[in-house]
Write a structure and sequence with these properties.
This protein has 128 residues and is an all-alpha fold. The protein has four helices and no strands. Helix 1 packs across helix 3.
Length: 128
């Protein structure tokens, strides 16, 4: 049951992400905002008139946060797997780099300093 729910959510998130990124979606959203603004004088710039756009934008933003997070997480996982595969098949690559995303902040800072040192040595022409 949970797997079906997760898969269903992933499909909805991917579809919504594709639709939200289209130019036509932006045009429709822009037209709605322009239409809402044009109705302002008709409704006397009332609180209800303002509440409509505030409520709609808040609800859309609330749901989009979850959908964007889901698609971004899936994309990041896919990129990590692709990079892991490239490291795995490259004889010269360090196997320790395959799970960098699991390191804590201090370990990442130390590794970054190591690579900074290696880069500086290479720029100086030192053999590494």
């Amino acid at each position: 049951m949970a797997s079906g729910l997760t898969n269903g959510f992933a499909r909805v998130a991917q579809w919504t992400s594709r639709q939200a990124g289209r130019a036509s979606t932006f045009i429709v959203a822009s037209a709605l905002v322009i239409g809402w603004a044009a109705l302002g004088p008709l409704y006397g710039w009332s609180d209800t008139w303002q509440l409509i756009v505030n409520t709609v934008s808040s609800v859309v933003t609330f749901f989009m946060v979850f959908l964007i997070q889901n698609t971004q997480h899936r994309d990041t996982q896919a990129i990590q797997l692709k990079l892991d595969e490239l490291l795995r098949v490259n004889e010269a690559a360090r196997d320790a780099l395959i799970n960098l995303e699991d390191l804590n902040e201090e370990e990442l800072v130390a590794l970054k300093a190591t690579f900074k040192h290696l880069r500086a040595a290479r720029l100086r022409g030192d053999s590494i």
